[in-house]
Specification:
Two copies of one chain form a homodimer.
Chain A: E1 14-15, H1 18-26, E2 30-33, E3 40-41, E4 44-45, H2 49-58, E5 62-67, H3 74-83, E6 94-96, H4 97-108, E7 114-118, H5 121-129, E8 134-135, H6 147-150, E9 159-164, H7 172-184, E10 189-192, E11 198-200, E12 206-208, H8 210-221, E13 226-227, H9 234-242, E14 250-254, H10 257-266, E15 270-274, H11 281-289, H12 293-296, E16 302-304
Parallel strand pairs in A: 1-16, 2-5, 2-14, 5-6, 7-8, 7-9, 9-10, 10-13, 14-15, 15-16
Antiparallel strand pairs in A: 3-4, 11-12
Helix pairs in contact in A: 4-5, 7-8
Chain lengths: ~325, ~325
Protein backbone atom coordinates (compact mmCIF):
# COMPACT_ATOMS: atom_id res chain seq x y z
CA UNK A 1 0.00 0.00 0.00
CA UNK A 2 2.99 2.33 -0.23
CA UNK A 3 2.25 3.37 -3.81
CA UNK A 4 -0.83 5.27 -4.82
CA UNK A 5 -3.78 3.23 -5.86
CA UNK A 6 -4.26 5.72 -8.67
CA UNK A 7 -1.24 4.35 -10.50
CA UNK A 8 -1.36 0.72 -9.30
CA UNK A 9 -3.98 -1.20 -11.23
CA UNK A 10 -7.64 -0.57 -11.81
CA UNK A 11 -9.55 1.79 -9.55
CA UNK A 12 -12.08 -0.14 -7.51
CA UNK A 13 -13.68 2.43 -5.21
CA UNK A 14 -12.72 0.61 -2.02
CA UNK A 15 -13.80 1.95 1.34
CA UNK A 16 -10.85 3.80 2.86
CA UNK A 17 -10.47 2.63 6.46
CA UNK A 18 -8.14 0.99 8.97
CA UNK A 19 -4.59 0.22 7.92
CA UNK A 20 -5.21 1.19 4.29
CA UNK A 21 -6.40 4.65 5.35
CA UNK A 22 -3.25 5.18 7.46
CA UNK A 23 -1.03 4.09 4.57
CA UNK A 24 -2.76 6.20 1.92
CA UNK A 25 -2.65 9.30 4.10
CA UNK A 26 0.98 8.67 5.10
CA UNK A 27 1.87 8.55 1.42
CA UNK A 28 0.30 11.95 0.69
CA UNK A 29 1.87 15.39 1.00
CA UNK A 30 -1.04 17.34 -0.44
CA UNK A 31 -4.81 17.01 -0.29
CA UNK A 32 -7.08 18.92 -2.67
CA UNK A 33 -10.60 19.38 -1.36
CA UNK A 34 -13.73 20.22 -3.23
CA UNK A 35 -15.81 22.34 -0.85
CA UNK A 36 -19.59 22.14 -1.20
CA UNK A 37 -20.76 18.61 -0.37
CA UNK A 38 -17.34 17.68 1.05
CA UNK A 39 -16.51 20.27 3.73
CA UNK A 40 -19.91 21.88 4.07
CA UNK A 41 -23.42 21.96 2.74
CA UNK A 42 -24.62 25.50 2.24
CA UNK A 43 -23.54 27.31 5.40
CA UNK A 44 -23.17 24.28 7.67
CA UNK A 45 -19.93 22.32 8.08
CA UNK A 46 -20.12 18.56 7.56
CA UNK A 47 -19.95 17.12 11.05
CA UNK A 48 -16.36 16.15 11.92
CA UNK A 49 -14.90 17.71 8.77
CA UNK A 50 -13.19 20.66 10.53
CA UNK A 51 -11.59 18.24 13.02
CA UNK A 52 -10.37 15.95 10.24
CA UNK A 53 -8.79 18.84 8.33
CA UNK A 54 -7.32 20.15 11.58
CA UNK A 55 -5.51 16.85 12.13
CA UNK A 56 -4.33 16.71 8.52
CA UNK A 57 -2.88 20.21 8.88
CA UNK A 58 -1.29 19.26 12.20
CA UNK A 59 0.29 16.25 10.50
CA UNK A 60 2.00 18.63 8.08
CA UNK A 61 -0.15 18.01 5.03
CA UNK A 62 -0.69 20.81 2.54
CA UNK A 63 -4.41 21.47 2.17
CA UNK A 64 -5.73 23.17 -0.95
CA UNK A 65 -9.31 23.93 -1.96
CA UNK A 66 -10.39 23.39 -5.54
CA UNK A 67 -13.95 24.48 -6.30
CA UNK A 68 -15.98 25.07 -9.45
CA UNK A 69 -17.98 27.74 -7.65
CA UNK A 70 -17.35 31.12 -9.28
CA UNK A 71 -19.39 33.04 -6.74
CA UNK A 72 -16.66 33.74 -4.18
CA UNK A 73 -13.20 35.28 -4.21
CA UNK A 74 -10.20 33.53 -2.68
CA UNK A 75 -10.38 35.82 0.35
CA UNK A 76 -14.07 35.04 0.85
CA UNK A 77 -13.22 31.32 0.92
CA UNK A 78 -10.55 31.77 3.60
CA UNK A 79 -13.15 33.60 5.69
CA UNK A 80 -15.75 30.88 5.25
CA UNK A 81 -13.23 28.17 6.20
CA UNK A 82 -12.31 30.12 9.35
CA UNK A 83 -15.93 30.81 10.25
CA UNK A 84 -16.85 27.13 10.00
CA UNK A 85 -13.90 26.04 12.17
CA UNK A 86 -11.52 24.68 9.52
CA UNK A 87 -7.77 25.20 9.96
CA UNK A 88 -6.54 28.60 8.78
CA UNK A 89 -5.99 28.91 5.03
CA UNK A 90 -4.29 31.60 3.00
CA UNK A 91 -5.81 32.93 -0.23
CA UNK A 92 -3.05 31.17 -2.19
CA UNK A 93 -4.45 27.80 -1.06
CA UNK A 94 -7.84 28.55 -2.67
CA UNK A 95 -8.47 27.66 -6.30
CA UNK A 96 -11.96 28.74 -7.26
CA UNK A 97 -13.06 29.19 -10.84
CA UNK A 98 -13.35 32.97 -10.42
CA UNK A 99 -9.62 33.13 -9.65
CA UNK A 100 -8.63 30.48 -12.19
CA UNK A 101 -10.67 32.10 -14.96
CA UNK A 102 -8.98 35.44 -14.29
CA UNK A 103 -5.62 33.69 -14.36
CA UNK A 104 -6.48 31.99 -17.64
CA UNK A 105 -7.56 35.24 -19.27
CA UNK A 106 -4.45 37.00 -17.97
CA UNK A 107 -2.38 34.46 -19.93
CA UNK A 108 -4.60 34.31 -22.99
CA UNK A 109 -5.49 37.96 -23.61
CA UNK A 110 -3.23 40.65 -25.00
CA UNK A 111 -2.52 43.60 -22.67
CA UNK A 112 -5.40 46.05 -22.44
CA UNK A 113 -8.00 43.59 -23.73
CA UNK A 114 -11.26 43.53 -21.78
CA UNK A 115 -13.78 40.80 -20.91
CA UNK A 116 -17.56 40.81 -21.20
CA UNK A 117 -18.65 38.96 -18.07
CA UNK A 118 -21.79 37.00 -17.32
CA UNK A 119 -21.16 36.63 -13.62
CA UNK A 120 -21.17 38.23 -10.22
CA UNK A 121 -19.01 40.48 -8.07
CA UNK A 122 -16.46 37.75 -7.24
CA UNK A 123 -15.66 37.19 -10.89
CA UNK A 124 -15.33 40.95 -11.36
CA UNK A 125 -13.05 41.23 -8.31
CA UNK A 126 -10.71 38.45 -9.46
CA UNK A 127 -10.47 40.03 -12.92
CA UNK A 128 -9.63 43.36 -11.32
CA UNK A 129 -6.99 41.68 -9.19
CA UNK A 130 -5.13 40.62 -12.34
CA UNK A 131 -5.75 43.90 -14.16
CA UNK A 132 -8.33 42.82 -16.74
CA UNK A 133 -10.94 45.49 -17.52
CA UNK A 134 -14.42 44.03 -17.59
CA UNK A 135 -18.03 44.90 -18.16
CA UNK A 136 -21.25 43.03 -17.72
CA UNK A 137 -21.83 42.13 -14.05
CA UNK A 138 -25.22 43.12 -12.65
CA UNK A 139 -28.62 43.40 -14.32
CA UNK A 140 -28.94 44.40 -17.98
CA UNK A 141 -32.00 45.51 -19.94
CA UNK A 142 -32.69 45.18 -23.64
CA UNK A 143 -31.93 48.52 -25.34
CA UNK A 144 -35.33 49.00 -26.94
CA UNK A 145 -38.52 47.16 -27.86
CA UNK A 146 -37.54 45.55 -31.19
CA UNK A 147 -34.91 42.99 -32.24
CA UNK A 148 -33.36 45.59 -34.54
CA UNK A 149 -32.71 47.75 -31.45
CA UNK A 150 -31.09 44.85 -29.59
CA UNK A 151 -28.55 44.44 -32.35
CA UNK A 152 -27.58 48.09 -32.08
CA UNK A 153 -26.58 48.39 -28.42
CA UNK A 154 -23.06 49.78 -28.12
CA UNK A 155 -20.19 47.27 -28.01
CA UNK A 156 -16.88 48.02 -26.28
CA UNK A 157 -14.15 47.53 -28.91
CA UNK A 158 -11.66 46.46 -26.20
CA UNK A 159 -13.63 43.27 -25.45
CA UNK A 160 -11.70 40.20 -26.57
CA UNK A 161 -13.29 37.57 -24.34
CA UNK A 162 -16.73 36.50 -23.14
CA UNK A 163 -16.52 34.91 -19.70
CA UNK A 164 -19.53 32.94 -18.45
CA UNK A 165 -19.79 32.16 -14.74
CA UNK A 166 -22.67 31.86 -12.35
CA UNK A 167 -24.92 34.85 -12.96
CA UNK A 168 -28.19 35.32 -11.16
CA UNK A 169 -28.79 38.30 -13.48
CA UNK A 170 -28.43 36.15 -16.59
CA UNK A 171 -30.95 37.35 -19.15
CA UNK A 172 -31.79 37.37 -22.82
CA UNK A 173 -30.28 40.87 -23.00
CA UNK A 174 -26.92 39.56 -21.75
CA UNK A 175 -27.06 36.50 -24.00
CA UNK A 176 -27.63 38.87 -26.90
CA UNK A 177 -24.61 41.04 -26.05
CA UNK A 178 -22.42 37.95 -25.53
CA UNK A 179 -23.36 36.67 -28.99
CA UNK A 180 -22.69 40.05 -30.56
CA UNK A 181 -19.18 40.21 -29.07
CA UNK A 182 -18.48 36.68 -30.29
CA UNK A 183 -19.75 37.38 -33.80
CA UNK A 184 -18.07 40.75 -34.08
CA UNK A 185 -14.60 39.29 -33.60
CA UNK A 186 -13.88 35.67 -34.51
CA UNK A 187 -10.82 35.80 -32.21
CA UNK A 188 -12.96 36.73 -29.21
CA UNK A 189 -12.42 34.01 -26.59
CA UNK A 190 -15.34 32.13 -25.09
CA UNK A 191 -14.56 30.91 -21.58
CA UNK A 192 -16.83 29.23 -19.03
CA UNK A 193 -16.04 28.70 -15.37
CA UNK A 194 -17.66 25.24 -15.24
CA UNK A 195 -20.35 22.98 -16.67
CA UNK A 196 -22.12 22.04 -13.41
CA UNK A 197 -25.74 21.77 -14.47
CA UNK A 198 -27.23 22.27 -11.01
CA UNK A 199 -26.31 23.62 -7.62
CA UNK A 200 -27.79 21.42 -4.91
CA UNK A 201 -29.28 23.20 -1.91
CA UNK A 202 -29.94 21.82 1.53
CA UNK A 203 -33.08 19.72 1.76
CA UNK A 204 -32.79 18.22 -1.74
CA UNK A 205 -33.74 21.35 -3.68
CA UNK A 206 -31.58 22.50 -6.57
CA UNK A 207 -31.12 25.56 -8.72
CA UNK A 208 -29.70 25.79 -12.25
CA UNK A 209 -25.90 25.79 -12.43
CA UNK A 210 -23.45 27.69 -14.60
CA UNK A 211 -23.47 24.87 -17.16
CA UNK A 212 -26.95 25.99 -18.28
CA UNK A 213 -25.74 29.49 -19.01
CA UNK A 214 -22.61 28.23 -20.79
CA UNK A 215 -24.80 26.02 -23.00
CA UNK A 216 -27.05 28.94 -23.91
CA UNK A 217 -24.07 31.02 -25.05
CA UNK A 218 -22.43 28.08 -26.84
CA UNK A 219 -25.67 27.37 -28.68
CA UNK A 220 -26.03 30.99 -29.81
CA UNK A 221 -22.40 31.27 -30.87
CA UNK A 222 -22.12 27.71 -32.25
CA UNK A 223 -18.74 27.50 -30.53
CA UNK A 224 -17.44 25.37 -27.69
CA UNK A 225 -16.27 27.27 -24.63
CA UNK A 226 -12.95 26.66 -22.92
CA UNK A 227 -13.96 25.43 -19.47
CA UNK A 228 -11.68 26.47 -16.66
CA UNK A 229 -13.16 24.28 -13.92
CA UNK A 230 -13.02 20.59 -13.09
CA UNK A 231 -12.79 18.13 -14.80
CA UNK A 232 -10.40 20.24 -16.90
CA UNK A 233 -6.86 19.76 -15.63
CA UNK A 234 -6.37 23.53 -15.81
CA UNK A 235 -7.48 23.69 -12.16
CA UNK A 236 -4.77 21.23 -11.15
CA UNK A 237 -2.22 23.07 -13.28
CA UNK A 238 -3.06 26.23 -11.33
CA UNK A 239 -2.30 24.38 -8.09
CA UNK A 240 0.90 22.93 -9.54
CA UNK A 241 2.14 26.29 -10.70
CA UNK A 242 1.68 27.72 -7.20
CA UNK A 243 3.05 24.78 -5.20
CA UNK A 244 5.48 21.93 -5.75
CA UNK A 245 3.00 19.08 -5.95
CA UNK A 246 3.80 15.50 -6.86
CA UNK A 247 0.66 13.93 -8.38
CA UNK A 248 1.69 10.56 -6.95
CA UNK A 249 1.63 12.08 -3.45
CA UNK A 250 -1.60 14.07 -3.87
CA UNK A 251 -5.17 13.10 -2.99
CA UNK A 252 -8.20 14.71 -4.63
CA UNK A 253 -11.22 14.58 -2.33
CA UNK A 254 -14.63 15.29 -3.86
CA UNK A 255 -18.29 14.40 -4.02
CA UNK A 256 -18.83 14.54 -7.81
CA UNK A 257 -17.67 11.84 -10.17
CA UNK A 258 -17.78 13.85 -13.40
CA UNK A 259 -15.79 16.79 -12.03
CA UNK A 260 -13.72 16.03 -8.91
CA UNK A 261 -12.98 12.37 -9.48
CA UNK A 262 -12.53 12.67 -13.25
CA UNK A 263 -10.06 15.53 -12.88
CA UNK A 264 -8.15 13.71 -10.14
CA UNK A 265 -7.91 10.52 -12.18
CA UNK A 266 -6.89 12.42 -15.33
CA UNK A 267 -4.08 14.14 -13.45
CA UNK A 268 -2.73 10.95 -11.87
CA UNK A 269 -3.87 11.80 -8.35
CA UNK A 270 -5.27 9.39 -5.81
CA UNK A 271 -9.02 9.98 -5.75
CA UNK A 272 -11.31 9.81 -2.74
CA UNK A 273 -15.10 10.12 -3.03
CA UNK A 274 -17.19 11.33 -0.09
CA UNK A 275 -20.86 10.43 0.08
CA UNK A 276 -21.88 13.66 1.85
CA UNK A 277 -22.66 15.38 -1.44
CA UNK A 278 -24.38 14.59 -4.71
CA UNK A 279 -23.16 11.03 -5.41
CA UNK A 280 -24.48 7.69 -4.18
CA UNK A 281 -22.42 4.51 -4.29
CA UNK A 282 -24.66 2.78 -6.85
CA UNK A 283 -23.66 5.38 -9.44
CA UNK A 284 -20.05 4.28 -9.01
CA UNK A 285 -21.10 0.65 -9.31
CA UNK A 286 -22.80 1.39 -12.63
CA UNK A 287 -19.54 2.86 -13.94
CA UNK A 288 -17.54 -0.10 -12.60
CA UNK A 289 -19.91 -2.54 -14.30
CA UNK A 290 -19.85 -0.68 -17.60
CA UNK A 291 -18.06 -1.97 -20.69
CA UNK A 292 -17.23 1.59 -21.68
CA UNK A 293 -13.61 2.47 -20.81
CA UNK A 294 -14.44 6.19 -20.58
CA UNK A 295 -16.74 5.45 -17.65
CA UNK A 296 -13.92 3.83 -15.70
CA UNK A 297 -12.27 7.22 -15.43
CA UNK A 298 -15.24 8.25 -13.26
CA UNK A 299 -14.44 5.58 -10.65
CA UNK A 300 -12.48 6.78 -7.61
CA UNK A 301 -9.73 4.81 -5.92
CA UNK A 302 -11.50 5.05 -2.56
CA UNK A 303 -14.60 6.30 -0.85
CA UNK A 304 -15.66 7.31 2.65
CA UNK A 305 -19.13 8.09 3.92
CA UNK A 306 -17.74 11.40 5.18
CA UNK A 307 -14.26 12.82 5.52
CA UNK A 308 -14.92 12.63 9.26
CA UNK A 309 -14.33 8.88 8.77
CA UNK A 310 -10.64 9.69 8.34
CA UNK A 311 -10.37 10.79 12.00
CA UNK A 312 -9.42 7.35 13.39
CA UNK A 313 -6.60 7.01 10.86
CA UNK A 314 -5.37 10.45 11.93
CA UNK A 315 -5.45 9.73 15.66
CA UNK A 316 -2.33 9.82 17.78
CA UNK B 1 -40.89 14.77 -64.51
CA UNK B 2 -44.49 13.82 -63.63
CA UNK B 3 -43.54 12.16 -60.32
CA UNK B 4 -42.02 14.06 -57.43
CA UNK B 5 -38.28 14.23 -57.37
CA UNK B 6 -38.53 13.61 -53.64
CA UNK B 7 -39.46 9.98 -54.22
CA UNK B 8 -37.64 9.37 -57.50
CA UNK B 9 -33.97 8.77 -56.84
CA UNK B 10 -31.39 10.83 -55.00
CA UNK B 11 -32.01 14.48 -54.32
CA UNK B 12 -29.57 16.59 -56.30
CA UNK B 13 -30.55 20.19 -55.59
CA UNK B 14 -31.16 21.07 -59.22
CA UNK B 15 -32.11 24.59 -60.22
CA UNK B 16 -35.87 24.68 -60.73
CA UNK B 17 -36.53 26.45 -64.02
CA UNK B 18 -38.07 26.10 -67.48
CA UNK B 19 -40.01 22.99 -68.33
CA UNK B 20 -39.04 21.25 -65.07
CA UNK B 21 -40.46 24.12 -63.05
CA UNK B 22 -43.76 23.96 -64.92
CA UNK B 23 -43.94 20.17 -64.42
CA UNK B 24 -43.12 20.25 -60.71
CA UNK B 25 -45.65 22.98 -60.03
CA UNK B 26 -48.32 21.26 -62.15
CA UNK B 27 -47.84 18.14 -60.05
CA UNK B 28 -48.42 19.97 -56.75
CA UNK B 29 -51.72 20.71 -55.01
CA UNK B 30 -50.24 22.25 -51.88
CA UNK B 31 -47.23 24.43 -51.16
CA UNK B 32 -45.92 24.93 -47.62
CA UNK B 33 -43.92 28.10 -47.15
CA UNK B 34 -41.48 28.99 -44.47
CA UNK B 35 -41.83 32.75 -43.97
CA UNK B 36 -38.76 34.66 -42.82
CA UNK B 37 -36.06 34.45 -45.50
CA UNK B 38 -38.52 33.02 -48.03
CA UNK B 39 -41.45 35.46 -48.24
CA UNK B 40 -39.92 38.38 -46.38
CA UNK B 41 -36.91 39.57 -44.46
CA UNK B 42 -37.92 41.43 -41.33
CA UNK B 43 -40.71 43.72 -42.45
CA UNK B 44 -39.91 43.80 -46.17
CA UNK B 45 -41.33 41.36 -48.72
CA UNK B 46 -38.84 39.53 -50.94
CA UNK B 47 -39.16 41.24 -54.31
CA UNK B 48 -41.58 39.33 -56.56
CA UNK B 49 -42.67 36.94 -53.80
CA UNK B 50 -46.19 38.38 -53.38
CA UNK B 51 -46.74 38.15 -57.15
CA UNK B 52 -45.50 34.55 -57.28
CA UNK B 53 -47.82 33.51 -54.45
CA UNK B 54 -50.66 35.44 -56.06
CA UNK B 55 -50.26 33.38 -59.24
CA UNK B 56 -50.01 30.12 -57.31
CA UNK B 57 -53.27 30.98 -55.50
CA UNK B 58 -54.91 31.94 -58.80
CA UNK B 59 -53.83 28.57 -60.23
CA UNK B 60 -55.80 26.88 -57.44
CA UNK B 61 -52.90 25.78 -55.28
CA UNK B 62 -53.40 25.53 -51.53
CA UNK B 63 -50.86 27.76 -49.79
CA UNK B 64 -49.92 27.09 -46.16
CA UNK B 65 -47.37 28.82 -43.95
CA UNK B 66 -45.18 26.75 -41.68
CA UNK B 67 -42.90 28.78 -39.40
CA UNK B 68 -40.79 28.03 -36.34
CA UNK B 69 -41.35 31.57 -35.10
CA UNK B 70 -43.34 31.48 -31.85
CA UNK B 71 -43.65 35.25 -31.60
CA UNK B 72 -46.86 35.71 -33.59
CA UNK B 73 -50.38 34.30 -33.49
CA UNK B 74 -52.09 32.84 -36.55
CA UNK B 75 -54.16 36.00 -36.89
CA UNK B 76 -51.07 38.20 -36.75
CA UNK B 77 -49.56 36.20 -39.62
CA UNK B 78 -52.62 36.66 -41.80
CA UNK B 79 -52.34 40.39 -41.19
CA UNK B 80 -48.67 40.50 -42.06
CA UNK B 81 -49.28 38.55 -45.28
CA UNK B 82 -52.02 40.99 -46.26
CA UNK B 83 -49.95 44.04 -45.35
CA UNK B 84 -47.03 42.87 -47.51
CA UNK B 85 -49.29 42.19 -50.52
CA UNK B 86 -49.51 38.39 -50.38
CA UNK B 87 -52.78 36.69 -51.37
CA UNK B 88 -55.35 36.57 -48.58
CA UNK B 89 -54.84 33.78 -46.04
CA UNK B 90 -57.10 32.49 -43.30
CA UNK B 91 -55.78 31.71 -39.82
CA UNK B 92 -56.26 28.00 -40.54
CA UNK B 93 -53.57 28.19 -43.23
CA UNK B 94 -50.97 29.39 -40.68
CA UNK B 95 -48.91 26.87 -38.74
CA UNK B 96 -46.61 28.73 -36.37
CA UNK B 97 -44.99 27.07 -33.37
CA UNK B 98 -47.10 29.11 -30.94
CA UNK B 99 -50.25 27.54 -32.39
CA UNK B 100 -48.72 24.09 -32.86
CA UNK B 101 -47.31 24.04 -29.31
CA UNK B 102 -50.74 24.91 -27.92
CA UNK B 103 -52.25 22.16 -30.03
CA UNK B 104 -49.65 19.66 -28.81
CA UNK B 105 -50.26 20.53 -25.17
CA UNK B 106 -54.03 20.35 -25.70
CA UNK B 107 -53.56 16.71 -26.77
CA UNK B 108 -50.90 15.82 -24.20
CA UNK B 109 -52.17 17.45 -21.00
CA UNK B 110 -55.08 16.28 -18.87
CA UNK B 111 -58.01 18.72 -18.56
CA UNK B 112 -57.31 21.60 -16.19
CA UNK B 113 -53.53 21.20 -16.31
CA UNK B 114 -51.57 24.43 -16.71
CA UNK B 115 -48.32 25.36 -18.48
CA UNK B 116 -45.39 27.37 -17.20
CA UNK B 117 -44.38 29.42 -20.24
CA UNK B 118 -41.07 30.97 -21.21
CA UNK B 119 -42.40 33.00 -24.09
CA UNK B 120 -44.30 36.05 -25.21
CA UNK B 121 -47.89 37.21 -25.66
CA UNK B 122 -48.46 35.15 -28.84
CA UNK B 123 -47.69 31.92 -27.05
CA UNK B 124 -49.99 32.96 -24.22
CA UNK B 125 -52.77 33.86 -26.68
CA UNK B 126 -52.59 30.53 -28.52
CA UNK B 127 -52.70 28.64 -25.20
CA UNK B 128 -55.75 30.66 -24.18
CA UNK B 129 -57.39 29.88 -27.50
CA UNK B 130 -57.26 26.15 -26.71
CA UNK B 131 -58.18 26.64 -23.05
CA UNK B 132 -54.85 25.90 -21.35
CA UNK B 133 -54.21 28.01 -18.24
CA UNK B 134 -50.69 29.39 -18.22
CA UNK B 135 -48.30 31.49 -16.22
CA UNK B 136 -44.88 32.89 -16.90
CA UNK B 137 -44.97 35.40 -19.79
CA UNK B 138 -43.37 38.77 -19.05
CA UNK B 139 -40.47 39.73 -16.78
CA UNK B 140 -39.77 37.80 -13.59
CA UNK B 141 -37.54 38.67 -10.65
CA UNK B 142 -35.76 36.37 -8.23
CA UNK B 143 -37.80 36.15 -5.01
CA UNK B 144 -35.03 37.23 -2.65
CA UNK B 145 -31.29 37.68 -2.39
CA UNK B 146 -30.13 34.12 -1.60
CA UNK B 147 -30.34 30.77 -3.44
CA UNK B 148 -32.37 29.37 -0.56
CA UNK B 149 -35.01 32.04 -1.29
CA UNK B 150 -35.06 31.18 -4.98
CA UNK B 151 -35.98 27.61 -4.18
CA UNK B 152 -38.93 28.74 -2.10
CA UNK B 153 -40.90 30.84 -4.59
CA UNK B 154 -44.47 29.55 -4.83
CA UNK B 155 -45.21 26.92 -7.46
CA UNK B 156 -48.66 26.48 -9.03
CA UNK B 157 -49.70 22.86 -8.40
CA UNK B 158 -51.73 22.84 -11.63
CA UNK B 159 -48.59 23.17 -13.80
CA UNK B 160 -47.93 19.97 -15.74
CA UNK B 161 -45.82 21.35 -18.59
CA UNK B 162 -42.94 23.75 -19.15
CA UNK B 163 -43.15 25.35 -22.59
CA UNK B 164 -40.08 27.15 -23.94
CA UNK B 165 -40.50 29.56 -26.83
CA UNK B 166 -38.81 32.78 -27.80
CA UNK B 167 -38.69 34.92 -24.69
CA UNK B 168 -36.98 38.29 -24.62
CA UNK B 169 -37.61 38.27 -20.84
CA UNK B 170 -35.73 35.00 -20.39
CA UNK B 171 -33.79 35.21 -17.13
CA UNK B 172 -32.12 33.14 -14.46
CA UNK B 173 -35.25 33.61 -12.36
CA UNK B 174 -37.38 31.96 -15.04
CA UNK B 175 -34.86 29.20 -15.64
CA UNK B 176 -34.98 28.50 -11.92
CA UNK B 177 -38.77 28.24 -11.85
CA UNK B 178 -38.77 26.02 -14.95
CA UNK B 179 -36.32 23.64 -13.28
CA UNK B 180 -38.36 23.56 -10.09
CA UNK B 181 -41.54 22.62 -11.96
CA UNK B 182 -39.67 19.88 -13.82
CA UNK B 183 -38.09 18.49 -10.64
CA UNK B 184 -41.27 18.72 -8.61
CA UNK B 185 -43.18 16.41 -10.90
CA UNK B 186 -41.34 13.83 -13.04
CA UNK B 187 -44.39 13.69 -15.33
CA UNK B 188 -44.17 17.42 -16.05
CA UNK B 189 -43.76 17.79 -19.83
CA UNK B 190 -40.87 19.75 -21.30
CA UNK B 191 -41.77 21.22 -24.69
CA UNK B 192 -39.79 23.62 -26.89
CA UNK B 193 -41.14 25.48 -29.89
CA UNK B 194 -37.93 25.08 -31.94
CA UNK B 195 -34.14 24.72 -31.80
CA UNK B 196 -33.19 27.62 -34.09
CA UNK B 197 -29.98 28.90 -32.54
CA UNK B 198 -30.13 32.37 -34.04
CA UNK B 199 -32.59 34.77 -35.61
CA UNK B 200 -30.96 36.58 -38.49
CA UNK B 201 -31.74 40.28 -38.83
CA UNK B 202 -31.41 42.46 -41.87
CA UNK B 203 -27.85 43.56 -42.59
CA UNK B 204 -26.19 40.34 -41.39
CA UNK B 205 -26.74 40.89 -37.67
CA UNK B 206 -28.22 38.10 -35.58
CA UNK B 207 -29.75 37.61 -32.16
CA UNK B 208 -29.96 34.42 -30.08
CA UNK B 209 -32.78 32.08 -31.04
CA UNK B 210 -35.14 29.94 -29.00
CA UNK B 211 -32.74 26.98 -29.24
CA UNK B 212 -30.42 28.71 -26.74
CA UNK B 213 -33.20 28.96 -24.18
CA UNK B 214 -34.32 25.37 -24.78
CA UNK B 215 -30.73 24.18 -24.23
CA UNK B 216 -30.46 26.08 -20.96
CA UNK B 217 -33.62 24.43 -19.61
CA UNK B 218 -32.63 21.00 -20.95
CA UNK B 219 -29.23 21.31 -19.30
CA UNK B 220 -30.74 22.25 -15.93
CA UNK B 221 -33.36 19.50 -16.08
CA UNK B 222 -31.09 16.90 -17.74
CA UNK B 223 -34.02 16.02 -19.97
CA UNK B 224 -34.58 16.35 -23.68
CA UNK B 225 -37.46 18.59 -24.71
CA UNK B 226 -40.12 17.58 -27.22
CA UNK B 227 -39.61 20.05 -30.06
CA UNK B 228 -42.77 21.11 -31.84
CA UNK B 229 -41.14 22.95 -34.73
CA UNK B 230 -39.35 21.91 -37.89
CA UNK B 231 -37.57 19.56 -38.54
CA UNK B 232 -40.01 17.59 -36.36
CA UNK B 233 -42.79 16.17 -38.52
CA UNK B 234 -45.31 17.34 -35.93
CA UNK B 235 -45.63 20.58 -37.92
CA UNK B 236 -46.54 18.67 -41.06
CA UNK B 237 -48.91 16.45 -39.08
CA UNK B 238 -50.71 19.62 -37.94
CA UNK B 239 -51.15 20.63 -41.59
CA UNK B 240 -52.27 17.13 -42.53
CA UNK B 241 -54.86 17.01 -39.77
CA UNK B 242 -56.36 20.30 -40.96
CA UNK B 243 -56.28 19.64 -44.71
CA UNK B 244 -56.29 16.64 -47.03
CA UNK B 245 -52.68 16.77 -48.19
CA UNK B 246 -50.93 14.17 -50.30
CA UNK B 247 -47.19 14.32 -49.51
CA UNK B 248 -46.41 13.31 -53.09
CA UNK B 249 -48.30 16.39 -54.30
CA UNK B 250 -46.89 18.83 -51.73
CA UNK B 251 -43.87 21.14 -52.00
CA UNK B 252 -42.03 22.47 -48.93
CA UNK B 253 -40.34 25.79 -49.70
CA UNK B 254 -37.73 27.04 -47.23
CA UNK B 255 -34.39 28.71 -46.72
CA UNK B 256 -32.96 26.46 -43.96
CA UNK B 257 -31.58 23.02 -44.61
CA UNK B 258 -31.72 21.69 -41.05
CA UNK B 259 -35.34 22.70 -40.46
CA UNK B 260 -37.37 23.33 -43.63
CA UNK B 261 -35.63 20.96 -46.02
CA UNK B 262 -35.04 18.22 -43.45
CA UNK B 263 -38.71 18.19 -42.41
CA UNK B 264 -39.87 18.22 -46.02
CA UNK B 265 -37.59 15.33 -46.96
CA UNK B 266 -38.55 13.35 -43.84
CA UNK B 267 -42.24 13.70 -44.68
CA UNK B 268 -41.85 12.67 -48.31
CA UNK B 269 -42.53 16.13 -49.73
CA UNK B 270 -40.79 17.72 -52.70
CA UNK B 271 -38.33 20.22 -51.27
CA UNK B 272 -37.36 23.57 -52.73
CA UNK B 273 -34.60 25.74 -51.26
CA UNK B 274 -34.59 29.50 -51.76
CA UNK B 275 -31.35 31.42 -51.46
CA UNK B 276 -32.97 34.58 -50.11
CA UNK B 277 -32.42 33.49 -46.51
CA UNK B 278 -29.68 31.91 -44.42
CA UNK B 279 -28.33 29.22 -46.78
CA UNK B 280 -25.74 29.47 -49.56
CA UNK B 281 -25.42 26.85 -52.28
CA UNK B 282 -21.95 25.70 -51.17
CA UNK B 283 -23.46 24.39 -47.94
CA UNK B 284 -25.68 22.12 -49.98
CA UNK B 285 -22.69 21.01 -52.03
CA UNK B 286 -20.86 20.01 -48.86
CA UNK B 287 -23.79 17.79 -47.88
CA UNK B 288 -23.97 16.32 -51.40
CA UNK B 289 -20.25 15.52 -51.30
CA UNK B 290 -20.41 13.98 -47.85
CA UNK B 291 -20.09 10.24 -47.20
CA UNK B 292 -22.52 10.56 -44.32
CA UNK B 293 -26.01 9.37 -45.30
CA UNK B 294 -27.63 11.57 -42.63
CA UNK B 295 -26.33 14.67 -44.40
CA UNK B 296 -28.10 13.66 -47.62
CA UNK B 297 -31.41 14.29 -45.89
CA UNK B 298 -30.41 17.97 -45.77
CA UNK B 299 -30.21 18.19 -49.56
CA UNK B 300 -33.29 19.65 -51.29
CA UNK B 301 -34.71 18.36 -54.55
CA UNK B 302 -34.51 21.82 -56.11
CA UNK B 303 -33.39 25.36 -55.51
CA UNK B 304 -34.21 28.83 -56.79
CA UNK B 305 -32.41 32.08 -56.11
CA UNK B 306 -35.77 33.50 -55.02
CA UNK B 307 -39.32 32.28 -55.24
CA UNK B 308 -39.83 35.18 -57.66
CA UNK B 309 -37.94 32.93 -60.11
CA UNK B 310 -41.08 30.79 -60.30
CA UNK B 311 -42.98 33.61 -62.02
CA UNK B 312 -42.12 32.58 -65.61
CA UNK B 313 -43.30 29.02 -64.96
CA UNK B 314 -46.56 30.47 -63.60
CA UNK B 315 -47.23 32.70 -66.59
CA UNK B 316 -50.44 32.37 -68.60
Amino acid sequence: MAGTAGTAGPRLCRRLEGEAARAVLANADTLLFDCDGVLWRGDTAISGAPAALGRLAAAGKRLCYVTNNSGRTRVAYTEKLRRLGFPPAEPRHIFGTAFCAARYLRQALPPGAAAYVLGGPALAAELEAVGIPHLGPGPAALPGPAPADWAKAPLDPAVRAVLVGFDEHFSYAKLCQALRYLLQNPDCLLVGTNRDHRLPLEGGAAIPGTGCLVKAVETAAQREAFIVGKPNRFMFDCVASEFQVDPARTIMVGDRLDTDILMGNSCGLTTLLTLTGVTALDEVQAHLDSDCPARHSLVPDYYVDSIADLLPALGE
